Amino acid sequence: MMKALHTKRLWPWLLLSLWPLSVCGWNKPTHMAIGAIAYRDLQVKSPRKLARLVALLRQHPDTKTRWAATLRDSTLSEDDKNRYLFMLAARWPDDIKEPNNPYDHPTWHYINYVYNPAMGMARTDTTLATGENILQAFEQNRQLLKSDAPDSMKAVALCWLLHLAGDVHMPLHTAALISPQFPAGDQGGNLFKIKVSMSNPTRNLHALWDGMLLSTDRFDAADQLARQLEQAYPRRKAPRRRKPDIDAWSVESFELARRLSYREGSLLAGTGDNGVVLPADYLPTMRPVAEQRVALAGHRLANGLWFDLKKKGWFGLRG
Q1: How many CA atoms lie within 13 A of 158 on its CB side?
Q2: Range(s) of the domain holding residue 188
Q3: Is residue 278 part of a domain?
Q4: Residue 317 belongs to some domain of the structure
Q5: Per the structure, how many domains does the chain have?
Q6: What parts of the chain have a pLDDT lower than 70?
Q7: What is the per-residue pLDDT for 86?
Q8: What is the CATH number of the domain that holds 275?
Q9: Pairing relation of β-strands 3-6 and 113-115?
Q10: Could you tell me if 132 and 157 are in contact, meaning their C-beta atoms sit under 8 angstroms apart?
Q11: CA torsion, ordered 209, 230, 88, 309, to nearest 10 deg
Q12: What is 81-133 written as a DSSP string?
């Protein structure tokens, strides 16, 4: 029986260096697809609220710089531009991983639930000594969006919500594998070296999950992935919990990491340039899981934004 422990019962070394300062959860194209799913969900649920969110994003500090070309593209319809803006906003926290960027918060992208199969430890709640985790950051940005802050700051908060809802649905953004091979943690699979086949180069498990669904960040490709996932996993089949519950989402992801990503500790890892070849059924089994998690992220994000927008104080919008 796996045990759940709390931070105060952990050895101090478990809290140190479990994750690198630079990490991605889903790649940028996949985050764009999540943004597109959320956009279309909101378009159905409340076009008025969606329009207000789009207007808010146009107050973002990067509107006149990083996103300017997109907003001027005459080949896109107005709806395409608005959806593209949502998609760019969803990937923005990865785009700003730059030296001295004041909006970059490396520890916001993940939480370390420790998985130590050898010791029978399957989950623990931790707060990293290095900064706030994804659960804290999500709630912080929710509150900022509901505050009296300037619209430019609210636009930044919205980007983070769009992004973190995606990150928390990526299993390896919630797990730190502790083992004799990785006594200080495998950094969410970043040190866990694998190969897809003997002829493929070595890569890490985290990167494999990041890019499992799409490798190009073209607008049409990311939007097409979103449409495919919306058809395969429609909104009506998503769990009907309206209030955002990132804690529950993170636990779901951790259980998937434990059972499927790491195969309950049976998946073998290499080190350095010597990756261990994955079992033949690994990718065929994991890809549908990744697809479902991405679709859920988009649907739940839209539900959460819609729920919060109903609350008094959000832009004066009700109903």
Answers
A1: 34
A2: 3-310
A3: yes
A4: no
A5: 1
A6: 1-25, 121-131, 237-242, 311-319
A7: 97
A8: 1.10.575.10
A9: unpaired
A10: no
A11: -120
A12: HHHHHHHHHHHHHHHT--TT-TT--GGGG---EEEBGGGTEEEEE---TTS--
